Amino acid sequence: MSTRTLISPATLARPRGKALYWTVFTAVVLLFALAFLFPVYWMVTGAMKSPDEIARTPPTLVPDHWHLGGYTDAWDLMQLPRHLWNTVVQAAGAWACQLVFCTAAAYALSRLRPAFGRLILGGILATLMVPAQALVVPKYLTAADLGLLNKPLAIWLPAVANAFNLYLLKRFFDQLPRDVLEAAEMDGAGKLRTLWSIVLPMSRPVLGVVSIFALVAVWQDFLWPLMVFSDTDKQPISVALVQLSQNIQLTVLIAAMVIASIPMVALFLVFQRHIIAGISAGGTKG
Asked: What is the distance between the terminal CA atoms of the chain, rounded to a whole angstrom?
């Protein structure tokens, strides 16, 4: 079975066609790499410029003098260790709660076949059509009534209700081979034992994707933490960067942004293969 391409194999076999192909391919790759990496470079080097140089017009691509003091000032003046730790606690709790409850709900809808399961799944997916801003006030009133303000539970509990991650897990569970699950059932494994010993080990790629989505969602969220954390000492890094930026130099603020983005970038670089494999397995098959 032949595969259609923009350039025919005969044209690609010629020296001129091959040279043209690799020239265009290299130019496109470099263009996309520049478009994605240049903002990162601009942010990292911007923190190393002097306050006068960062405001200069036209801007300089390379700092005239490299100042690393912006990063140390951001670390000390903006109390980044405290706010980074607050973010880690909130993100880790939201990740654990979401992984447990979404996995259990997806497994029940996929393998236990409850009554009105399709109706329940349709109702869950319908919540994706509701704007997030429309849910802010009801969530805040509920958190206030339960006494969750200024507590990590105000972040953990709302994060559990994630319809997208639940659907992603269900799609993956639907594609698991039936013969393996039936063999476990014939060997006497119950539903929980099958989930723990069979389903979860086979679901590591999609669990990695859900973990990344859960962590990134909490790490970059701003509006909800701003509403539920009035205590400055308990605010996550996303809120603290705005609250503490009033009397801070621009270079120090940029340095703080760079430091705040390092954990998520490092997390993606370490687990990028698992993320891509999990997205492919959970969203493109079947």
From this structure: 22
Contact 278, 165 (CB under 8 A): no
Contact status, residue 239 vs residue 226, Cβ threshold 8 Å: yes
What is the per-residue burial (b if ≥16 Cβ within 10 Å, else e) of 239-250? bbbeebeeebbe
Dist CA 49 CA 70 (whole Å): 8
Q: Dump pLDDT digits (tens) for 102-123.
A: 999 999 988 888 888 889 989 9
Please tell me the pTM assigned to this model: 0.80
Q: How far apart are CA 219 and CA 190, in angstroms?
A: 37
Q: What angle do CA 234, 156, 223 make, to 5 degrees?
A: 60
pLDDT tens sequence across 58-79:
888 888 888 888 888 889 888 8
Quick count: other Cβ atoms within 10 Å of Cβ 89? 15
